[in-house]
Each structure stands twice: as structure tokens, then as C-alpha cells.
Amino acid sequence: MDITGRISAVKRDYLISLAKEGKRADGRDFDEYREIKIDREVLRNAEGSAMVKIGNTTVMAGIKLEVGEPYPDSPEEGAMTTSVELPPLASPEFEPGPPKPDAIEIARVIDRGIRESEYIQLDKLAIEPGEKVWIVFIDIHVLDYDGNLFDAGSLAASAALQNAVIPNERYELGENLPLPINLPPVSCTFVKFGDAIVVDPNLEEEQVAEARFTVATDANGDIRAMQKGLSGSFIIDEIKNNIKRGQIHAKKIRKLLEG
Amino acid sequence: MDITGRISAVKRDYLISLAKEGKRADGRDFDEYREIKIDREVLRNAEGSAMVKIGNTTVMAGIKLEVGEPYPDSPEEGAMTTSVELPPLASPEFEPGPPKPDAIEIARVIDRGIRESEYIQLDKLAIEPGEKVWIVFIDIHVLDYDGNLFDAGSLAASAALQNAVIPNERYELGENLPLPINLPPVSCTFVKFGDAIVVDPNLEEEQVAEARFTVATDANGDIRAMQKGLSGSFIIDEIKNNIKRGQIHAKKIRKLLEG
Amino acid sequence: MDITGRISAVKRDYLISLAKEGKRADGRDFDEYREIKIDREVLRNAEGSAMVKIGNTTVMAGIKLEVGEPYPDSPEEGAMTTSVELPPLASPEFEPGPPKPDAIEIARVIDRGIRESEYIQLDKLAIEPGEKVWIVFIDIHVLDYDGNLFDAGSLAASAALQNAVIPNERYELGENLPLPINLPPVSCTFVKFGDAIVVDPNLEEEQVAEARFTVATDANGDIRAMQKGLSGSFIIDEIKNNIKRGQIHAKKIRKLLEG
Amino acid sequence: MSELIKDGLRIDGRKPDELRPIKIEAGVLYRADGSCYLEWGGNKVLAAVYGPREAIPRHIQDPTKALVNARYNMASFSVKERKRPGPDRRSTEISKVTSEALENVIFTELFPRTTIDVNIEVLDAEAGTRCAGITAAAVALADAGIPMRDIPVACAAGKVDGVVVLDLSAEEDQQGDADLPIAISPRSEEILLLQMDGHLTYKEFEEALELALKGAKYVSKLQKEALMKKYKG
Amino acid sequence: MSELIKDGLRIDGRKPDELRPIKIEAGVLYRADGSCYLEWGGNKVLAAVYGPREAIPRHIQDPTKALVNARYNMASFSVKERKRPGPDRRSTEISKVTSEALENVIFTELFPRTTIDVNIEVLDAEAGTRCAGITAAAVALADAGIPMRDIPVACAAGKVDGVVVLDLSAEEDQQGDADLPIAISPRSEEILLLQMDGHLTYKEFEEALELALKGAKYVSKLQKEALMKKYKG
Amino acid sequence: MSELIKDGLRIDGRKPDELRPIKIEAGVLYRADGSCYLEWGGNKVLAAVYGPREAIPRHIQDPTKALVNARYNMASFSVKERKRPGPDRRSTEISKVTSEALENVIFTELFPRTTIDVNIEVLDAEAGTRCAGITAAAVALADAGIPMRDIPVACAAGKVDGVVVLDLSAEEDQQGDADLPIAISPRSEEILLLQMDGHLTYKEFEEALELALKGAKYVSKLQKEALMKKYKG
Q: What letters, b where the CB count within 10 A reaches 16 and e where it falls short, cover D147-157?
């Protein structure tokens, strides 16, 4: 069972037939995002935070830093870990309990985008090299689920990291400092149903989706992470097209993030 | 589902109609405890132990001490932790597995009574301040469940702590010494059903109870912990009256504990 | 529910009636093992490994060594731990999840055979006595289950330990060295159904078995571990006879292991 | 230990009987049947209600009434030291007493075999989260149209530096002498939840209870204003 | 390593074939259908039986017989180093072999679709807890009126300092050479449980088995006396 | 960082477009309905298929089709540092995308209310285990006689030292620039699985995809040979 819930065959047929006319149920173009809003520094206890809305989907990201041991294979670097919580608050389909495969997949794809674009300067997060480093916890808390958690979660994480501080004071290590970061990745997600491929799927569209594709690109438009999901397939040209469309969307979203 | 099990509507009506006449099914007054028995030093491996019977309810408390790290916010103090086990041995309704909400609530209320009355002198339990302190484990094991685990558990914990030792010998830290304690808290529990409020509920009475109230008082009769439970309500005067009755009961029970 | 799965009453009657004629369904004598094959050093990442087949039962054992802390009661010795995995790959009855009682029993009986025969020279596995020692992980992974996991698992563990190395290089502690061992235990398992007691039960025979008996003997034929299982019983002479038969089988199997 | 009361005022400048600033907004979530966002001092809390809906699995159904299932959860980033996700003993207890307090006012007998799920997420915590959560949950229940006898409300009083005060701040909670959170049905003044830890004489308790009741009734007005704002404007 | 046998006597003064003191009391619990409290040397064990009662969930029911479900548990305070609550690998194995041994004697076919739950709590442990637990469980089953072919009983023998001895103490268990716990049906001398770890020649095994059987038969008498005491006076 | 490409050759002597040695054997297990053993470089992987069989518990059944339930598991001894048994986040994700990729080709609508369980055990790991696992699972499905549109196959390409290469080794995976595992339906060239992490320009991606497709098609031949070998001789 996935997180989207059931949908009636009638609705599925309706969405697919609309798509055949090049339309989406909410009036958007295939290649159009819903409105995106980013609120920053919304929390007091988090080292960094942001609330992102994409349409009716709302996601909160909170950054916490703790002192810990480095990984044996990178003793002079800090570490990062990304988790996604799907609390029952955000959807009638979400259940309490440890993260299910859906949440784990989203977290790992977002994590790869951040990690591979070297967004966090982990090499500047050693305290005593080999002994003590900063661990960056990126916790993404979904508050209202109307589709496209990959992009909303990625965006919230990126925005929260932008205002995160190293809490030196709490650990009596001197003054708080901004978390050292590079330029963020931007994630762009498509789903395919019938013959249509649409960007930024809402819940309804995810419910009828046969295949999903996410691409995270860096400031140069280069690819840093990709993930194809669901049991449907893409042909090669569709994949290529998704990437190119994703590069264009990412540029616009990047402005919101940097603006 | 709670731990008390089901009860027939007939029985409920019977208990409530009895209560209207000022009677309880077992012949007690509303304000009367069942017989209380305390057996001390009943175990060899525990650092302190006691078995308490309140009527047919039997509870064993065992105290263990271990060397551990202090909490960061109290580096020069020992620590304490209270747990309640409801093993399937003690009732047909108890199931194996990690503690359920009922057991957690009982443990936390007993813990607060002990902690807030400063019964254990935690400030005398540092071994190397900031590094190594004694951790006091108060483990309450229910053996036979016929109601009122709050009071039976609290009493067993208090009695077991009275005969607990610091196991210095086992850790090669010198001679065993008595655990440093102050005066114990005493817990008193009421339940309400229909218009009646009775002290020391037995199982039957817990099964029909609408609301529950526990108050733990210190040697001065001052309040150290309170807990209202269940979905029924109390009016303000009932709460006040419960506290005053609780203070009186606690004085008597305190004599058993100190005697 | 045990791991063998259900069997029809017809099949049970058939196996028992065959046994009355002194026969087994696969044509073996009561006192005859299936063919045993041992493949060694089959894995690259394990410190030692072996794949053992007894008839259609296939078991893989992998040995891993890690640096860890010694047990408080044996500060100058290494430690060992044995686990058995019954992955759903190996049988339609196996389910994913933490080890069930069946797997735990097998692992603990195999562990006792190895431990009590002092097969691994744990006293030579201290790195810094009292501080750092080698922990030997014996992981037994069942790949194809057609009965007698006690003997197949024990044999695989013994064979894997024979080619295990101490991975000093990975921990920058010098050169890899062979794991210091003594002579292995050999395990021999019987089941009883109807009036028959047969050695090396296959799955079918385990499904009808009323009682099970395992004996692990050392190179002198002395007993190092025994386990009676299942709800049936043995009379004393049966136990004695099982041990004597087990001693004889062990001698032959020991040759395969040392050969 | 720092002085928590100076010249009759508290460390954050409040008078003993003064609440922290409170902001309540009803109907803030798209998916939930009812919801509420609440800020109370440094607390930021979101509550969502789903139901009544069929209780699953069936064997938990009560043929005579709805189950009220509140789940109090602190986000991992809501506290100074990151909290491991998932329920701990503290949140399990709070979930239990919250469920019981809310069940009191709901006409559960109207919805047999169902469950009413109340989800409380603490996004930012600064003492008094259980009162904030119950208060938000009550608004979310009303927003979901769940029939209730009354809209419950919660508030705490306590004692710091020997003085009985209303609505402890984080510092007061850590260094103070006692905390007394209550939840009430404001119309009848019935006590739905009452917990206390610390040290109070009986007289101090009476004083604290009085103060907490006063605070709760004030917060009750804010709840109603938030609901009015949603429905009338 | 200390000397465990001196002048033919064991460290606690016992002869090689001597049991530790044993005390058995039947019917000690109010809620359980049958119960037993047993002291055996430094062991203090309580056993309670519930059932036969309907097995839940239904899919575990056996339409031909009752399930016997023994659960051996050590209280966290029953050992020197506090034990974390909950089952570990050792107690899981003991629960399994105990269930199997007890099932042997129960007329399970009389109670299809039910479960007979046998709960064994070790309150204080000093070597030999599994034998103490089985012995107590058997009395609790009888006290519960569960129909049995025989009342099973358990006892261990072992080897210390090269000498075969009955009923190991804690020190003997830790420093000794072998431990051989058995459970039998005393009437038929059938072996219901047998485990062994250590080092025994075949001859020593025969000797140890003989001793364990002797011990078990003596304990069997104590079981019956305890049941008589409960029912006759 | 070591040099991964020297004189146009990779550290293990391979050319950029060269696969590691691969060995596939179908039908190797006795109990499974279908199975496959596969070696791919230093990877040793076993796959077993059970089903279609009734999905249990019933409420997970889909009345319109079979559920495809792949479980990717690494044996504790399959990696340098011993892995704790049981699923971690990485294997949970791989199990999910593997299930989805395999479901694509199976005629699941023929087997409503059932589950097809695909168990993948990694016994020895050296980069590329997910591709090895999917490739083995596909052979096991065919061996089990599960009706499929096509036999899927997986292969990875990547980038090391700025060069696009086929089928990364362990060292290349750790120190390289990018990894792009894909699974395809070889007949239609549809993409069933595609993941990527690292750094690729769009042009490099096109090149890598081309290479991965070429590799997958070669491995597809080996799959078919293995199945032929089993059935024809």
C-alpha cells in the first residue's frame, strides 16, 4: 500500500481523458507548477527552518546540529542525515510508526540531491578532526499532503539550510556561526499517466500516476540525483525530456530560493 | 483498550446502586483502604526490595543500582528511573510486550511522587562528578492485579528504597552503604463512579470508574504530585476533597511504612 | 507455529507405516545421513566462509571479526556470538523479521557446541586485555531448507571457522593471521516419530517428528552439548542410544571436516 | 539558581497572573477535517482532526461509541537537543491524558464503531506544550464539526520563587517549584485533566487552581474568537 | 579458579548428591487460574496459569488441540547486573523448551482452539532457574485443574572439579565443568527436556543423568506435598 | 585520491565500456519455485521466487492483480564491516524500486489476490548489488514460470576521473564521480528503474545511459543463455 490512498476508476478515467485534451483537472498546463511559497526562520529551537507550500502541500523542515563522531571513512568531515516524517496530521492515509518505504525513498532522494551537490560544506564541520564533528540533521515534517513531497521536501530542506547556524554557544564552543553552504540543488518531479507527463503532480495526479521521475540539478544545470519510481516505465526520450524540462523549472525555482 | 478488562452492564448498575446507598461491594466504607501488608528485603539480588499487598493486589519492587553517566543538566547528581511491568502472570488481561500506556502512566506518576519529594538524595550519588554517578532503577513488578496499582506500586517502591544499599563492593568502590534517602511520599488514589468517590479502588471498581485521582503527599502533608485520569471529570470541590482525604490516609499509611 | 509447515495426516501415516517396516521415504536406513558436501572459502568479504549441503539442505556460514570490548567477567578473552538467519528465500514457510524462537534455538545449540568444545581459542583474541578484544561473529544463513538445520549449520560454522582469518590489516594492527582454533565439535541430530528414531531428518521427517535430539561431541567423542526438542519424549535408553550413535556418526563427519 | 521574580515581576516581565501572548487560527490545513494552529509564548503547535471514520482493525471498534485517539508528538527539531522521532514515555502519557480529556466533551455515543483521531504536532516547544496541544485540539475538533458538550481549554499555573504564578515559561518550568496543568470544560468548570509535580501546600494549590481556571477561561475566549473569525469572516 | 569441592563437600557444604533447600507453595495468586511460588536455593520463582481460553487471534488456533504457551521471564532485579526488561535470546529458548516439555503431559486434545498460558517469573535467580520454573509451572497447572497424564518435574545435575554433582549452585554453574538440566514425567521416567553444556564423558553423562533423575523424583514428592497441603489442609 | 583511469584503462584493467565477469545459473534451489545464482565481479547474489500464492493477511490482497513483493537483503557477512541483520533504509529503498521494476513486466492481472515474493540475498558484495539482484530476480521469475512481457535486466554506468564508464567496481563506486543504475525491458528498451547520484552534465548522462543500455543488453543475453542451459541441457 502506498501513501496516496485509493481513487475511483471513474476519476482515473476522467483525469486521463482530460490529459488527452492537454488539460489538468486544476487547470494547469502539463508543464506548470502550482504556486510556491517559502517562509524562513519560522522556528526558535531549530538551528534553521523553513515552511514551504506548493499549492496545498505544506512541508516544514527543521535543521538541528549535534556534536558526534565522524564516519571512519571521512574522519575530517561533518556528517548529514535526512529524514522525512509523514505524521497522521498531514493526511488521512498516514499512519503513526517508524518511517515506511515511501517516506524512506523520499528522504533518500532528497538526501542524495543535497549530498551530491555538496550543498553543505561538510569539510568545514570538523571540531576535532577524527574525534568530534558536527552532525547535521535535516528533518522534514510533512504538515499537509496534496502531492509532490519530493520537491516540497527538497525545497524546504534547502531553504532551512540557508538560514541554519552552527550552535557553538550551546556547546560552549564560541559564537554561533552560519552553517557553511554552497549553492543548493533544486528538485523537479514529473508523473506519467496515460500518455501525459506532468510536472509537480498534485495528490489526485499521484493517485493515477503510473511512473514518477525526479531530477535534482545544481546551479549549472548539471544533474546531481535522479530517481525513477512506480511500476510504470518511461521510454528513453521521455527521460531525456524530463531532465531538460527539469533544468528549466529548476532555474525558476532557484530564484525563489535565492531571492 | 485499558488494562481492567470488560465488565457487564448488570454489574456496573449493581455497583452504582450499592454506592447510592453508601455501600461498596466488598463491604468497605467509601473512605476505607483494604488491608495493607509490607514485606521487606524479600530478594537477594536486588539492592533493595519489598512486596506490598493491598487486599488481593500484590506488587513487588526491586531496586538496582548501576554506574552510569549523569544527565548533562545535573552533572553532579545521580539519576533515577521508574518502570512498571504488567506481566501476563498478574492478570488475564495483561499481555507480554513493551510497556503499554497504562503501565507508563502508573510508572510516571509514581516517579514524580518520589522525585518531587526528593525521597532519594540524588546529590549524594555522584561517584566522579560530571563523569560517573549512580543510576537508581526502581522496577515495579505487578504480581497479582486486583486494582489500585498506583498506591501499591508507590508503596512498594518506597519500602524497597528504604532497605536499598549502594553496591560499592560489586563495583570495587569500597563498602556497601545504605542508599541515602529522605522521607518517602505517600500516594492515595480515588475513583469516581455514579456520584460516589471511593478510595483504594479494587478491580471491579476500576472497571466501572469514570474518573481517577491520585495525590502524593510528603511528610508535611504537602502535595508533591497529582494525576487525574480517565475520561470522566471532577468538579473543583471534589478535587479539593480528594486531596484532603488523601492527606489523612497518607498519614496512616506513612506509619506502616516507617513502622 | 514452527518452521516446518503443515503436513497432511495421510503423509504422516505413510511415513510412520514405512518406518514400521524399517524404511524411510527417501530410501535411507534409519542410521544413514544424506550426502554431505562442504565448500570452503566461498566468499570474499567474510573473514571465513563455507557452504554446506546435506542432501537438499544448503547452509552458508560467514565469519566476521570486529574489534570490541570484552565481557566484564572475561576481560582477557575475545568473545563469540552465533546467529542463524532463516530468510524467506530458503523456504515458503520462512518470514522476514527478527529471529523467531526456532532460529534462536538452533543458533544457541550450535553456539554451545562451539563454545563448550573451546573450538575458538578465545584466550588468544585479546588485543589490549581488558580494553579491546576480537569479537567473532558466526552468522549462519540458511539458503535452502530440507531439514536438519542443527547439523548443517554446525558443520558450516565449523568449516568456516577453519578458514577464518584475523583481519589485522583492516584495523591497521599488522598482518592478517589465521584464527586460532582447536578441534571442532560435530553435531548429530535425530528425530523420533512413531517408534522410529532416525538420524539426519529431512523436512518431511521433521514435519512428522514428535521429539528431536541433538548431541555435539568433541574429537575424543566426549559430549559438549545436547538438546532435546519438541513436545514428544524419549525414554532413557533412547537418549543413551542416540548419544552412542551420535558418537559414531561424528567420527565420520569429522573426517569430512578435517579432510 | 537565578532569581525568577524581581520586584514582583517575572523574568520575562510578566506579572504573576499574566499569560504569555497567544495566537489561535482555525482551519489552517487542507486535508484535515478540522485543524488549528496555535502559538503560545514560544510554543508553536498544529492540531488536525480526522473522523469520525470507521475504526480499523475492526476488533478495536466499540459498538456503543467513537474512540477518541489523541496523539501528541514533538517534532525532532522542536527542542534544544534534537529529539529522536517517535513516541517516548512522556508523549505516550500526554497522548493518554489528552485523549481522556477530549473524550469527555465529545458526544461519542453518536458515532459507534468509529474513531476520532486528533493529531497534535509540537513544532516549537517552550514549556506548556500539553496545554497548548489540548487547546489547539479542541479548536480543531470544533472546526471539524464534531458535536461537543463544550469546547475544552487548558492552562497551567505553578509556583516560582515561592510565588504562585500563571502559565510558566521555559525557565520557570525548569527552575520553578511546581507546575499544575489543568484542562476544563469552561462552561461547567469541570476538571478534565489535572496533573501536578513539584511542591505545593494545600493553600498554594487552591491559589494555583484558581489562577489556572482564570487563565483557562481567558484562553477559552481566544478559542471562540478564532472559530468566529473562521466562520464569520 | 577456586576449589569447588573440598574434603568431599561442596562450597556451600552440600554433599555431591544433595539438593539445595526447596520450598513449594500452591495456589498463591488471586487472579490466576492456578499458581505456585517456589524457592529453590537462592531462586525465587512464581508461576501462573491462565486457561484453557480461546486462542486469539483466531488464525493461531489449532482445531485439534490446545496450544501450550509458556513464557519464562526474569525480572530486571532478579540478577546481579540489572536485566533489561523483555525477552532475550536465552529466555526465548527457555520458553520454547519449557512449552514443549509441559505440552507433553497435558491432554491438549480435550481443549481444541484454546491456549493454555503458563507464565513463569523469576524474581530472584541463583542457577537452575529453568528447572525451578518448570517445576513451579507444573504445580500451577495442577492447581489450575488442567488434566495431565503426570505432573512433570525438573532437576539438574552437573560436574564440578571433575565430580558429578546434583543441582549446581551459582558458583558451581559459573566455574563448573558441565550442567545437565532435565525434565521428566516422574511416573514413566520419560525425558521431556534435556539440555547440556560443558564437558562430560559418556560415563559421566550416565552418572549425571542418574543423579538428576533421583533429584527430580525427590522434588516430585515436594510438588505433591504442596498440592496436598493446598487441597487437604 | 588515487587515479582510477590510467592509459585509458581502469584500475582493474578493464576498458571504459567493459563489464566485469558475469556468471548466471538458473534453478539452483530445491525449495523455491524459481531461483537463480549470479556472480557479477565480486558480487555473489542468490534470488528465489515463491508464488503466486494467496496474499496473507487477506486485507492486503488486491482483487485485480498479484502483489509483487521483492525483498533485497544483504547477509551480515557480505560486506567488509559486518552488517547488522535486518532491513536498513538503503535496503528498504532498493526493495521498493526493485519491486516496482519487476512488477512492470509481470502479468499480475492473471493472479488476483496473490503475492509473488522475490527474495534477493546478497552473499558477497562489490558495488552494483542492486543491478545484480534485479538481474538474478528476473531469471528466478522466469525459472518459476511466472508469465512476463519480457525478462528485465539491469546494469549501471557511471563516471570516474571524468570518464564515462560501464559497470563500476567497488573502488570506482567509492571514489568515482557518478553512478547510474538502470533496469530495462530489453525488448522495448523501456526504463523500469533509473537512479543516479553524483555529478553528470546532460551530455555525460546521455553517454552513460547509452553505455548502460548496451551493457544491459549484453547481460540480457547471459540471462537467456542461463535459462536455456537449464531447460535445454
A: ebebbbbbbbb
